[in-house]
Amino acid sequence: MHLTRRNRMKNKDLLKEENKELMQALSQALKEDDEDAMAEAFAVFATGVQERIMEEYGDLRQSKDATILASRGIRQLTGEEKTFYQAWIDAAKSANPKQALIDINKAMPETIIDEVIDDMRESHELLSEIDFINCQGAVKMIINADNIDLATWGALNSAISTELAGKIDLLNMTLAKLTAFIPVPKDMFVRGLGPEWLDNYVRIILSEASSAGLEKGILKGTGKDQPIGMCKNLDGAVTQGVYADKAKVSLKTLEPKEYCAAVAPLAKKPDSVGGYRTVPEVMLVVNPVDYIQRVVPSSTVRATDGTYKNNIFPYPTKVVQSAALDEGEAIMGIAKKYFMGVAAGDSGMIEYSDEYQFLEDNRVYITKLYGMGRPKDNNAFQYMDVSNLQPAPMKVEITNTVDNPVNTKAKA
């Protein structure tokens, strides 16, 4: 009996869920610096993406409806993007793909990196909350420590110049490199995948592979050949390029007094600037297990109609889950006070590698993104200990005014 095409196709929702689990495995491998587990998880993830792309290509390759294609991630390419991908396809089909790619000598167009960043923002909440940009062409970025007013009344004398200089930081955007592996099965090229379809595959691989590494760097990066994490003390000791962690602030309940006491230090500008700032909302980043076991029970209340209301905080809070954090630890802060810039630049050329054959019948390509990230000031984030976070107390009040004139209160 022959299976129908529909029966042979893997359910897209199931494939999406499998990829989610594989990305969690990749995040765990990154957290533990386990290169073998990292390679295995990424290889399986790439296979799932390849299956989805080839399945949809079979369904839609004759379609000219831009709306339908866009709904599947197939976007209209610029002339520069189409030329870049077509050159890659032609090089892959050549007898010597490595030399053919060298002959192209062209970096990935900046617009592709823009799309990858948008994809990462859309699928990774942490990256959508921070100040995350494409810094293409920038060797150094100017960081304004606290959105200070750079205007001044009166003459600009040397004292004022010195004061302003202390509030502006220059961030070297070439300090860290993020190498992304792009395993492309030869069958993709043999079956005639065009530039638009290759673009869809490359953006998925780049966004998911890069975002896992970026999250780790943004939250816990040491500062040595990687971003400076939110948990690091910018004013503390730096040993061979590695920044020390901040002391953890213990958070045991979400009762207003304790929780607001944890938030309050964020309203102080750094000592070099002085003064105070408003904090309309804080971001609380936690491990997914902690979110379920600790944060939800602590931030859940029962309404008068018997239903439960989740994520109730005494101060406006955006909770973000990240597998880059260990259980029991969390980071609280002002999301936009973290700057992260990435770019392809000259290092964004696609290279063919014989060294990373994760899968059979695959050609593995690599591209190197560069960038850097750090908190804009040392008061913008708190490193938290939530290992002893307690559930919210459930209070039940019973009033009997008929049989017993004395009110009776009970706590459950």
TrEMBL record:
Question: What InterPro entries does the database record attribute to this sequence?
Answer: Phage_capsid (IPR024455), Phage_capsid-like_C (IPR054612)
Q: Which residues form a coiled coil?
A: none
Q: What name does the UniProt record give this protein?
A: Phage major capsid protein
Name the source's superkingdom: Bacteria
Q: What is the lineage of its organism?
A: Bacteria, Bacillati, Bacillota, Clostridia, Lachnospirales
Q: Where in the cell is it found?
A: Virion
Question: Which organism does this sequence originate in?
Answer: Hominisplanchenecus faecis
* Annotated Pfam families: Phage_capsid
The Phage capsid-like C-terminal domain sits at: 108-244
